[in-house]
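In this section we walk through a basic example: taking a raw amino acid sequence and producing a predicted 3D structure, encoded as discrete structure tokens. The instruction is simple. Fold the sequence below.
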Amino acid sequence: QVQLVESGGGSVQAGGSLRLSCVASGRTNTMGWFRQAPGKEREGVAAIHTRTNTIRYADSVTGRFTISLDNAKNTVYLQMNSLKPEDTGMYSCAADAAIIAHEILLRPGRYDYWGQGTQVTVSS
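The resulting token sequence is shown next.
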């Protein structure tokens, strides 16, 4: 069992930046960030293979968000720049022991472990 703890959420104005962190209690092979806005389904934002640094981003965040790793700390980060009101939501970290195939990296159902989430609110 892997426990995940997120931090770094908050409220910012459009165009601002936030950095989310997620600390895992153990080593995993795939980690990702997901978000859910009120009334909408959870969607994948970015994910990474921890041993190869293979990364996938959702089209909506490409060029604005960056996912990165510190394997020594079992920590994954999500740097979010040029934030938009539509980025508002509950951001959750997820992890899995498997090396999830690249084409399904952003599917929430593929991940076994989830954090409690951290709220991100972007005002216009």
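Looking at the output, two observations stand out. The mean pLDDT is 97. The radius of gyration is 13 Å. In the next section we compare this with other chains.
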